[in-house]
Design goal:
Helices cover 21% and strands 25% of the residues. The protein has five helices and 15 strands. The structure holds citrulline. The site of citrulline has 17 residues, from loops.
């Protein structure tokens, strides 16, 4: 059974890193939205393992950033934001109980939100959070697993996956003018309509459903019209903290 590792939303979420926040974050609403997200994952067939929230780490629910899986190997990251580095220990323990672990180490930084697997390839964002050394260390580990890594320049948005999602093994959903698109040559590309950039942070689930943020109707129609199965979900509180659908889980399909 596919597994989704998630982390509960702490009361301290009100202090989550949020460069573009205009309104205070609402923990109760965030928890409701998180609960609805988990229901959709369950419905898609995932067994959920929910790690407890850590009040010392307001961003801990954005669990995607703490680890990357390469086949049967889990790579524990070293998040780019210093305030998030203490999030990895609990996630490493949970992953280490089921699979071998490797670690990204200083001076490298790497956020899971910059790592996008498409078919057998790994695209990795060179962003404010993930540096060259982080990409180099991940490339070495990926090569050992027979996986090719391609760096991608990120010019807008926090992470690579803020602007690009994989809809299947050969199709991307992306927002224009946010990343260097040259490395994606050869892949089919669907562009989110203007004004719906945040819809590029969508998440394909193991049953083929594509979770997409609520309030992006044109993207929803485009996905449905292209043969995908979109499901819209309100994650406004997480978006207000620079996150989105992909960052709330580590999916082990
Ligand atoms: C941060 O700034 O690190 C968090 N507030 C948001 C992280 C979102 N992560 C993701 O999209 N992978």
């Amino acid at each position: 059974m596919p597994l989704a590792l998630v982390r509960e939303v702490p009361a301290s979420f009100v202090a989550a890193l949020a460069p573009t926040r205009r309104r205070p974050l609402d923990v109760e609403v965030a928890r409701r939205q998180h609960g609805a997200y988990l229901e959709v994952l369950r419905g898609a067939g995932y067994q959920i393992t929910a790690l407890p929230a850590d009040e010392a780490h307001p961003d801990c629910c954005f669990i995607e950033d703490t680890a990357v899986t390469l086949g049967r190997l889990a790579v524990v990251t070293r998040p780019g934001a210093p305030s998030r580095r203490g999030e990895v220990a609990v996630v490493a323990a949970a992953l280490g109980a089921r699979m071998p672990l490797a670690r990204i180490s200083e001076p490298a930084t790497l956020d899971g939100g910059d790592v996008l697997q498409v078919g057998g390839r790994l695209f990795v964002g060179r962003s404010r959070r993930s540096n060259e050394e982080g990409i180099r260390q991940l490339a070495r580990l990926a090569a050992r697993e027979g996986i090719e890594l391609l760096p991608v320049g990120v010019s807008r948005g926090l992470h690579l996956k803020s602007s690009v999602a994989a809809l299947d093994e050969e199709t991307l959903l992306l927002a224009s003018d946010c990343v260097d698109e040259a490395p994606f040559g050869g892949l089919r590309q669907l562009r989110v309509p203007a004004g719906e950039q945040r819809a590029a942070n969508s998440l394909r689930l193991v049953d083929g459903t594509v979770l997409t943020p609520a309030g992006c109707p044109r993207t929803f129609e485009m996905l449905a019209g292209s043969g995908f199965r979109p499901v819209a979900l309100d994650v406004s509180q997480f978006e207000a903290a620079a996150g989105g659908l992909s960052c709330l889980s580590l999916l082990l399909d």
